[in-house]
């Protein structure tokens, strides 16, 4: 069955379930959209746990509004409309969900609430996912956070999902002129935040890591396991951007400052000199999971996850996350 026919059948089945108050059938129909709606909420919010909560809120709203769906638009469009407005309502109540100025002059802003997105929770069917690698990478998600909420919604719906302007206007209760104006301003901000990146996110994009990326991740892990400071430093671009989240004030923008900070924090000294690493991916990006064993402990314990953006064989951005409080990453607690 082709996608268009499936969407039509979903809409008809949804209406039938709504009219009969068949909660089980309703859940079966809407559940197949969960993963893509959660990705959509994540782009809006940059936080995996918030995205989970808002996806659930979306389904609660969908159930309460079920009789208002008449099939004039596809069920998917209607669900995205509800999810987008749920995110906007959330952002309107949370003053802590905006980027804050970095302590380092000239370093821009930090997004303390940023969380990695586990690849295993992405939609399984690439035709259904509306996920291009560039639009799920951390730099993109962070750049989106610098847009005001409604401008953010316009940008995601128009330039990521490819909705026409009248459809976006209807979803957000705006005029087409307002949508066009908001999109123009959003694109300017995104170009400023993502210099040198391609800006046509609706064209096909690879999901696979390159051999070069895999090689750099392996070298990064080997350097930790060997306590090889020179080898680790050689992997970094001089203009490395490093942050350790959710800790504020950790952002640095040179490799030297990053390495100095790691050394002052005890890297490769007693208690931080026995590592095991596992390669993985999050946000469709290469990453290394670090496990640390301290003296007198028999096991290596989950420590953090380092997400890497690699340019020309060297690490240009390194975002570290405390992995111990994120069971949804699906990482074993010990090795």
TrEMBL record:
Keywords, comma-separated and alphabetical: DNA-binding, Sigma factor, Transcription, Transcription regulation
What sequence ranges are listed for the domain RNA polymerase sigma factor 70 region 4 type?
140-189
Extract the GO molecular function terms from the UniProt entry. DNA binding; sigma factor activity
InterPro entries (alphabetical): NTF2-like_dom_sf, RNA_pol_sigma-70-like, RNA_pol_sigma-70_dom, RNA_pol_sigma-G_actinobac, RNA_pol_sigma70_ECF_CS, RNA_pol_sigma70_r2, RNA_pol_sigma70_r4_t2, RNA_pol_sigma_r2
Determine the domain of life of the protein's source. Bacteria
- What residue range is the signal peptide? none
Q: Which GO terms describe its biological process?
A: DNA-templated transcription initiation; response to stress
The yes or no answer to whether the keyword DNA-binding is present is yes
- Pinpoint the RNA polymerase sigma-70 region domain residues: 31-95
Does the record carry DNA-binding as a key word? yes
What is stated as this protein's family in its record?
Answer: Belongs to the sigma-70 factor family. ECF subfamily.
Family matches, as PANTHER family: ECF RNA POLYMERASE SIGMA FACTOR SIGG, RNA POLYMERASE ECF-TYPE SIGMA FACTO
The record describes its quaternary structure and partners as:
Interacts transiently with the RNA polymerase catalytic core formed by RpoA, RpoB, RpoC and RpoZ (2 alpha, 1 beta, 1 beta' and 1 omega subunit) to form the RNA polymerase holoenzyme that can initiate transcription.
Cross-referenced NCBIfam families, in alphabetical order? PRK08241.1 (NF006089), sigma70-ECF (TIGR02937), SigX5 (TIGR02960)
Q: What is this protein called?
A: RNA polymerase sigma factor
**Organism per entry:** [Actinomadura] parvosata subsp. kistnae
Q: What is the lineage of its organism?
A: Bacteria, Bacillati, Actinomycetota, Actinomycetes, Streptosporangiales
């Amino acid at each position: 069955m082709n996608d268009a026919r499936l969407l039509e059948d979903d809409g008809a089945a949804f209406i039938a379930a709504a009219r009969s108050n068949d909660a089980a059938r309703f859940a079966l129909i809407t559940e197949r959209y969960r993963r893509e709606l959660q990705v959509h909420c994540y782009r809006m919010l940059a936080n995996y746990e918030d995205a989970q909560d808002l996806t659930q809120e979306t389904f609660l709203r969908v159930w309460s509004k079920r009789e208002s769906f008449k099939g004039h638009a596809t069920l998917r469009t209607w669900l995205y409309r509800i999810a987008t407005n749920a995110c906007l309502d959330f952002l309107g109540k949370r003053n802590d969900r905006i980027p804050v100025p970095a302590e380092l002059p000239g370093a821009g802003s930090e997004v303390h609430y940023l969380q990695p997105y586990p690849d295993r929770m992405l939609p399984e069917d690439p035709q259904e996912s509306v996920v291009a690698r560039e639009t799920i990478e951390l730099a993109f998600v962070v750049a989106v956070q610098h847009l005001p909420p409604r401008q953010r919604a316009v940008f995601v719906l128009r330039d990521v999902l490819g909705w026409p302007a009248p459809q976006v206007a209807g979803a957000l209760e705006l005029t087409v002129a307002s949508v066009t104006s908001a999109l123009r301003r959003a694109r300017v901000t995104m170009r400023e935040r993502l210099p040198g990146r391609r800006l046509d996110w609706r064209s096909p994009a690879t999901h696979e890591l390159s051999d070069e990326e895999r090689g750099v991740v392996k070298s990064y892990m080997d350097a930790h396991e060997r306590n090889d400071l020179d080898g680790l430093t050689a992997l970094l671009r001089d203009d490395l951007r490093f942050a350790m989240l959710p800790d504020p004030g950790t952002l640095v923008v040179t490799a030297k400052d990053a390495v100095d900070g790691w050394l002052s924090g005890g890297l490769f000294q007693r208690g931080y000199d026995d590592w095991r690493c596992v390669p993985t991916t999050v946000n469709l990006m290469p990453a290394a999971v670090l496990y640390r064993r301290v003296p007198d402990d028999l096991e290596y314990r989950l420590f953090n996850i380092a997400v890497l953006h690699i340019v020309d064989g060297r690490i240009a951005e390194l975002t570290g996350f405390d992995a111990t409080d994120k069971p949804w990453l699906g990482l074993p607690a010990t090795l």
